[in-house]
Amino acid sequence: MLARVTIVLIAAFLVLTPGVGRADLSPYNQDFEGLNQADSGALGGDGWLVFGNVFDPGWGYAYGYGVFPAPNGTPGFCSVAAGEGGPDQGAQQIVVYNDYNNTDHGIGFFIEANVFRESVVGAGDVGSTWFFQFDAKHGDLAGSSTAIAFIKTLNPAAGYATTNFLPVDMTSIPDTWNRYAISLHIDAGLVGQIVQYGFASTTTGYQPSGMLYDNVDFRALAPTVNIDPNVINLDSHAPLVTVYLEMDGFDIGSVDPTSLRLAGSIVPSSKFAVIGDHNLNDVPDLMVKFSRSDLDPLLTPGVNNLTITGALVSGETFSGSDAITVIDPPMGSPAASISPNPLNPAGVLSFRTATSGPVAVRMFDLNGRLVRTLLEKQVVPAGTHEVSFDGRDRSGASLPSGVYFYRVETPEGVAKGQFSILK
Ligand SMILES: [Ca+2]
Ligand SMILES: [Ca+2]
Ligand SMILES: [Ca+2]
Q: If we measure between CA atoms, which residue out of 29, 25, 79 comes closest to residue 216?
C-alpha cells in the first residue's frame, strides 16, 4: 500500500507546491517546550505541514488534500501534547494522529494523514548524510490503524516523483520512550529535490491512531574535528598526532573507530579510541591517535587541511577536517621559525641544532627591549626543538598586539626573526 500512497501524494504536490528555491537543507531541532499549546498555529508556524490521501474500502485511490499548515488542538492530524514525557521529553510533545474531521471514516474509506516538514537539497549538501531522529512512544493507536515515520524525497523536475521513500513502521512500538533514526545520503542527483521528514497514520472508522513524538531533530552527520598539535614540525619526532571528533546531536559512541581514516588512508593507532570531553564543552569527543610516520610523508610545509573520514557502526559515512601548520626547517643551520604568525596570542617557536650545546631563546619588542626569556643557556641535544610561547612577558602579563622579534643563540650561530601578536 505504501508505494501506491506515495505515488499519489506526488501528483497532488505538483499542483499545490509552488516553485522551490535552491537553498541548502535546513537543520531543525524541536523539543516542543516553547510551543503554545493553546495556539492553533503553533505547529504550522514551526514549519509543520499536513497532507491527506484517501482510499476506498478496496484500497483504490479516492482523493488527496493539502498541503496545509499543520493544525493544533483540533481532531485533525496533530496537536501539541502535554504531560506524556519522560525525563528526556519534558513537559510537551507532539501527538500525531489521523484526520478525524474527515467524515469518510464513516463510509469505510482509509485516511492516510501525513504530518511533516520539508527542506530543499542544495549543492552544498552533496556527499553529506542527513538524519531524522526523534523520540517516540505509543499513544492510543489501536485496531487496524498503522503509523510510520519517514523520510521522502520528491523531484520537482520530474513531476514530483518520489525518489526515496524511507519509512519506519511505528505501529507496534512500546508505550515507553525510545529514540529512532532514519538517514538519507545526499548524492548529486538530489540537488534541487525536496526532502520531507515526518509521521503518518492510516486508519478508518474513526479508530484511535495517536502516537507521541518529541525531540525531533534533522541534521547532517558532520563531525567537528580538532587535530592536535596545530603545528607539526617535520623534524620533530613525536610519534603520534591526536584527533578529537565531536558529533553534536549524535551519540559519539556510535562512531566505529576502526573506520576512521586520516588524509585518505591512514588508519588509527589501535591503542587509542577514548570517549571523553577534553575541551569541557559538554559535547563528548572521541580521541583517536594516528602515527606521525604515516602522516609526515603526506604533509607539505605551510597550511595543510587534513580530512578525516569515517562511519557509524550502522554504516553511514561522514567526513570533517582541520587545518594544521607544517614547518620543515632546513638541515644544518640554526634556522628558527615561529608558528602561527601572527600569534593570537600563543604559538610555538621551532629551531634546529646540529650539535649538543647551550641555547638561549629570547623575545624582544619593537624597541629592542627584552620582554621574555624562553631558554637561558640551557643545554639541548642536537635535533629540532620546540618552545611554546604563551604571548606573555616575564611578569606573566599579556603582551599587547604588535611586532616582536625572537633571537635564538645556538652553538652554531644565531637565528633571528620577526613575528606579530594580533589579538
Ligand atoms: Ca519535549
Ligand atoms: Ca587543531
Ligand atoms: Ca568536547
A: 29
Surrounding residues of ion ligand 2, Cβ less than 5 A: 226-227, 230, 322
Cα 69 from Cα 46, distance rounded (Å)? 9
Quote the pTM value.
0.71
262 CA from centroid of ligand 2 (Å): 14
Q: Tell me the ligand closest to 91's alpha carbon.
A: 1
pLDDT tens string 150-197? 999 999 999 999 999 999 999 999 999 999 999 999 999 999 999 999
Ligand 2 centre from 89 Cα, in Å? 35
- Pairing between β-strand 231-233 and β-strand 317-327 as defined by DSSP bridges: parallel
Please give the grid coordinates belonging to residue 97.
Answer: 494522529
Q: What is the Cα–Cα distance from 337 to 352, expressed in whole angstroms?
A: 10
Task: Give me ligand 3 centre to Cα 325, in Å.
Answer: 22
Tell me which H or E stretch contains 50: strand 49-55
Tell me the domains of the chain and their CATH numbers.
2-220 (2.60.120.260), 224-321 (2.60.40), 336-421 (2.60.40.4070)
Residues in contact with 368: Cβ distance below 8 Å, sequence separation at least 6, in sequence order: none
Each residue's pLDDT tens digit, 19-46: 444 569 999 999 999 999 999 999 999 9
Residues within 5 A (CB) of ion ligand 1: 31-32, 89-90, 92, 214
281 CA → ligand 1 middle, Å = 23
How far apart, in Å, are the Cα atoms of 168 and each of 79, 162, 172, 267, 313?
21, 16, 11, 34, 19
**279: CA distance to ligand 3 center in Å?**
5
